[in-house]
Amino acid sequence: MQFTLRQLEVFLAIAKTGNMTRAAQQLQMSQSAASSALKDLETHLNTLLFDRMGKRLHLNEQGNQLRPKAERLMAEAGELEQSLLHSDETSPVKIGATLTIANFLALQMVSEYLGKYPNAPISLEINNTEHIVEQVLNYELDMGLIEGESHQTKLCVTPWRDDRLNLFCSTKHPLASKKAVNDQDLLDAKWILRELGSGTRQNFNRAMHGLIPEMNIILELRETEAIKRAVKHNIGVGCLSELSLDEELKRGELVRINCPERNFSRKLYLIVHEQKHISHSLKKWLDLCDKWKLIEPQIP
């Protein structure tokens, strides 16, 4: 066997960036050295791994077959190095979480994880469902915690926790005094919502099936706090997870809108690439996720 881990590292960097120059910069090596490493690997395997399209390199069928095996091998090599050099420490874990999960669940979980393993490197990427799914598919994250559904065949998607979306408005809004709203009330309202690609928006659109084309969506925001502030100013009504509204509803700053004709229950999910190597560190994190299935978060 004549290929090296460095050649696989170059191959994976090019697969992620799609560009030789950026891959070389990422690995802090010259472009000629990176190009030579890829050429040597392709020569040894007697096959091309990329389709060349100008300066872009796209994985071909052979490259796509090699990638998950190379990812596993590099992960195992990294874990071996960690165990030999730092037998009392834990290898790095890269977690991705959507906004609501990050703010109200994942940060508390990271705190607990670091309490058990104080020297363990862990990172938390916060983004919407669409981006977290993409990063897990691209092996940029070890796993993800998402609010929306994913039907990507290369992912292992596990239902994790129950959650519910709440419709809400300002205390000054006409809907604040209604015991229940109907579809016509929903169509008459001005809406402030999360952006397309977020799990919250995906679930809202599903719950409002049949009404979406006629709804008056006046503002789309990426931040839950911005949505709550806009609703407090009576710009429109909103829809967010009950996790993110608990304190404002208790203090009477916002009013929950009762909509019995629509189903706003949903699941939160764990996602892992189907060919991801489960390191000891990742297994510890997944065990913690399992523990948190039913734990009530402490809302700040």
Descriptive account of the structure:
The model has no long low-confidence stretch (mean pLDDT 91). The chain has helices at 5-17, 20-26, 31-45, 61-85, 99-116, 129-137, 183-188, 199-207, 224-232, 242-250, 280-291; strands spanning 50-53, 56-59, 93-97, 122-126, 143-146, 155-170, 190-194, 216-221, 237-241, 254-257, 265-273. By secondary structure, it is α/β, with parallel strands linked by helices.
CATH superfamily of the largest domain: Periplasmic binding protein-like II
> Helix fraction?
40-55%
Using only C-alpha atoms, the radius of gyration works out to 23 Å
Distance between the terminal alpha carbons, to the nearest Å? 55 Å
The total of beta strands comes to 11
The CATH class assignment of the largest domain is: Alpha Beta
CATH topology (fold) name of the largest domain: D-Maltodextrin-Binding Protein, domain 2
Annotated CATH architecture of the largest domain: 3-Layer(aba) Sandwich
SS content category: alpha/beta
SSE string: HHHEEHEHEHEEHEHEHEHEEH
How many strands, what sense, and barrel or not for the largest sheet? 9 strands, mixed
**What is the approximate shape?**
elongated
Count of discrete domains: 3
Strand percentage: 15-25%
